[in-house]
C-alpha cells in the first residue's frame, strides 16, 4: 500500500498538472471503488477550478472553487496517471504547454481506469485501481477534518506540532509493541510498515519494546527519526515495491536506501560483522513482517 511519502509525491505531481485549471469533463467508468462514488460526482466537479491540494495522512484532498474537496485514497493498488488528452504514453509532468484537445474521449483508457478528469488545458488524469480498494468522495472544504475517514486521525508526523512530548503523551499507558502503536493511525497519521521499520532502526528502538516504555528519552530519538526518513523518502519520490508509480509514470527510488526493510539476513549497515550482530532479522507482528537489527535496536 502506498504510504505517506508515496501519497505526498503523487499529490505534488497532480498539483503540478491540475492546480489553477478547470475540470471540463469527468468520466466515471463504474459506480464506485471501495465505496460508491458520491451522488452527482461528475455534475459537482465539472466546471470547477482546482484551487489547491492538501494531504492528510494517506489521503489527498483536491480543493475546488465551489467549496468542495475531492478526497482520493489510493488504497492498496491505486495510482494516478497524468497525460495529455489523446496520448497513449504517460509523459513526465513538466512545464505545461498550450491546451490542445480538452476532451478525453479520444485517449485510449488505461486498464482498470475507473475515473478520468479532463482539464481546460488538455490534460487527463485517470485513477487506475486494479483491486478497487481505493476511494473517492466529495466533502465540504471547510469540513474536511469531520469526514468519517479523517476525523479520528492523529497528528501529521511532518508537522512542527508533532513533538516528542506529543508522541510521549500518545504512548502513555499503551502496552502494545511500539511497532503496532506507530501503525495506529490515531497515534500518528500516515505511517505504514516500511517507514516504521526504518524509523525504529534509526532511533535504535526494538519493534518489540512496549510502547509506553518509549515515552520520554526514546521518543526524543524516535520523532526526529520519523521525520527524517519520511522527508528523505519524499525527496526520492517514495518507494516503489509493487504497484506504486508516480503520476508522471516514474518509479520512486527510496527502496534503494532501505536500511532494514526487506533485507532479512543481510548485514546490518551500522554494525556489519560486529559480534553478536547476526544481521537483519525478520519477525511477524500482527500479521506484518518487521525487519530490525536485534543488536542495534533495544
UniProtKB/TrEMBL annotation:
The entry's keywords: DNA damage, DNA repair, DNA-binding, Glycosidase, Hydrolase, Lyase, Metal-binding, Multifunctional enzyme, Zinc, Zinc-finger
Function: Involved in base excision repair of DNA damaged by oxidation or by mutagenic agents. Acts as DNA glycosylase that recognizes and removes damaged bases. Has a preference for oxidized purines, such as 7,8-dihydro-8-oxoguanine (8-oxoG). Has AP (apurinic/apyrimidinic) lyase activity and introduces nicks in the DNA strand. Cleaves the DNA backbone by beta-delta elimination to generate a single-strand break at the site of the removed base with both 3'- and 5'-phosphates.
Name of the protein: Formamidopyrimidine-DNA glycosylase
Taxonomic classification: Bacteria, Pseudomonadati, Pseudomonadota, Alphaproteobacteria, Acetobacterales
Active site per database record: 2 (schiff-base intermediate with dna), 3 (proton donor), 58 (proton donor), 288 (proton donor)
Domain FPG-type: 259-298
GO biological process: base-excision repair
Residues reported in the UniProt entry to bind DNA: 112, 131, 174
InterPro entries referenced in this protein's UniProt entry, alphabetically: FPG_cat (IPR012319), FPG_Glyclase (IPR020629), FPG_N (IPR035937), H2TH_FPG (IPR015886), Ribosomal_uS13-like_H2TH (IPR010979), Znf_DNA_glyclase/AP_lyase (IPR000214)
GO molecular function annotation: 8-oxo-7,8-dihydroguanine DNA N-glycosylase activity; class I DNA-(apurinic or apyrimidinic site) endonuclease activity; damaged DNA binding; zinc ion binding
Cofactor comment text: Binds 1 zinc ion per subunit.
Self-association state and partner proteins as the record states: Monomer.
PANTHER family according to UniProt: FORMAMIDOPYRIMIDINE-DNA GLYCOSYLASE (PTHR22993)
Amino acid at each position: 500500500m502506498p504510504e505517506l511519502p508515496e501519497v505526498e509525491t503523487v499529490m505534488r505531481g497532480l498539483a503540478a498538472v491540475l492546480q489553477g485549471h478547470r475540470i471540463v469533463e469527468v468520466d466515471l467508468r463504474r459506480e464506485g471503488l471501495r465505496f460508491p462514488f458520491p451522488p452527482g460526482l461528475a455534475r459537482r466537479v465539472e466546471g470547477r477550478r482546482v484551487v489547491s491540494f492538501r494531504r492528510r495522512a494517506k489521503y489527498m484532498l483536491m480543493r475546488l472553487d465551489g467549496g468542495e474537496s475531492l478526497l482520493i485514497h489510493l488504497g492498496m493498488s491505486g495510482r494516478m496517471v497524468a497525460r495529455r488528452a489523446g496520448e497513449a504514453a504517460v509523459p513526465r509532468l513538466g512545464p505545461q504547454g498550450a491546451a490542445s484537445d480538452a476532451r478525453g474521449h479520444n485517449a485510449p483508457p488505461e486498464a482498470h481506469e475507473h475515473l478520468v478528469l479532463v482539464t481546460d488545458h488538455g490534460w487527463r488524469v485517470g485513477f487506475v485501481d486494479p483491486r478497487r480498494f481505493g476511494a473517492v468522495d466529495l466533502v465540504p472544504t471547510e469540513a474536511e477534518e469531520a469526514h468519517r475517514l479523517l476525523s479520528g486521525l492523529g497528528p501529521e508526523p511532518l508537522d512542527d506540532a508533532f513533538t516528542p512530548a506529543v508522541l510521549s503523551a500518545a504512548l502513555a499507558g499503551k502496552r502494545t509493541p511500539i511497532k503496532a502503536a506507530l501503525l495506529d493511525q490515531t497515534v500518528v497519521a500516515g505511517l505504514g510498515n516500511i517507514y516504521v521499520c526504518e524509523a525504529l532502526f534509526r532511533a535504535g528502538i526494538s519493534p518489540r519494546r512496549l510502547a509506553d516504555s518509549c515515552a520520554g528519552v526514546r521518543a526524543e530519538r524516535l520523532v526526529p527519526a520519523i521525520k527524517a526518513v519520511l522527508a528523505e523518502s519524499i525527496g526520492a519520490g517514495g518507494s516503489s515495491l509493487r504497484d506504486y508509480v508516480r503520476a508522471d509514470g516514474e518509479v520512486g527510488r527510496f527502496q534503494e536506501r532501505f536500511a532494514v526493510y526487506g533485507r532479512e539476513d543481510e548485514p546490518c549497515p551500522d554494525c556489519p560483522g560486529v559480534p553478536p550482530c547476526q544481521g537483519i532479522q525478520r519477525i511477524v507482528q500482527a500479521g506484518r513482517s518487521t525487519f530490525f537489527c536485534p543488536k542495534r535496536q533495544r
